[in-house]
Design goal:
The protein is α+β, with helices and mostly antiparallel strands. The chain has two domains: about 60 residues, no CATH class; about 80 residues, no CATH class. It is about 25% helix and about 15% strand. The strands form two sheets. Strands 1-2-3-4 form a four-stranded antiparallel beta sheet. A two-stranded antiparallel ribbon has the order 5-6. Strand 1 and strand 2 form a beta hairpin. It starts with 10 loop residues before the first strand and ends in a 17-residue tail after the last helix. About 15% of the residues are buried.
């Protein structure tokens, strides 16, 4: 084992060395450090000096979060109304097992937005109390045919009800 180099008071990345800790079971010199995020950790002196350890793990977690974040509307437990609307409309048109499939995908309505970003760019944030509406009820979910609308506007923009036994109108593409 090499000679002890006092690291107390030195900084290594986000870590500041507070003082010595008990050697590990193999006799390596260990140091108590405090991270910029406030976590304390015991780290080997070799890992500090070599640059192998430069944070308590918060830097890695932060990088993962930033790399995986696309638009910020789908954070687990904090999904926005716009994102939930996007998912619902997409499911109605593309999942045959969805309860509303017969009225949407089953009759030919397609969800043509390529991404949530495109959907949000076209419609913008959802105003309070409004829901997604297709302007042409026989058209697809696509740019130019979707808007945020009140329940009353939606009630006025629906397919005519069929009488029992009446034949359905063919879908207009």
């Amino acid at each position: 084992m090499g000679r002890l180099i006092d690291l107390t008071g030195q900084r290594f990345g986000r870590l500041a060395v507070i003082g010595r800790a008990e050697n590990d079971r193999r006799g390596k010199y260990m140091w108590l450090v405090i991270c910029a995020c406030g976590n304390e950790k015991v780290v080997s002196g070799h890992n500090l000096r070599s640059g192998r350890t430069s944070s308590c793990g918060c830097f890695h977690r932060q990088g993962l979060r930033e790399r995986n974040l696309r638009h910020g509307h789908a954070v687990p437990g904090k999904r926005t109304p716009e994102y939930m609307t996007y998912l619902g409309a997409k499911a109605r048109c593309s999942r045959p097992k969805h309860q509303d499939w017969p009225n949407y995908g089953g009759r030919g309505v397609e969800f043509r937005f390529k991404s949530f970003g495109e959907f949000l760019t076209h419609l913008g944030p959802r105003p309070a109390g409004l829901t997604l509406d297709r302007i042409n009820n026989e058209g697809h979910y696509q740019t130019g045919n979707c808007q945020w609308a009140t329940r009353k506007q939606q009630a006025n923009n629906r397919r005519p009800r069929r009488k029992p036994g009446q034949m359905a109108l063919p879908f207009a593409a």
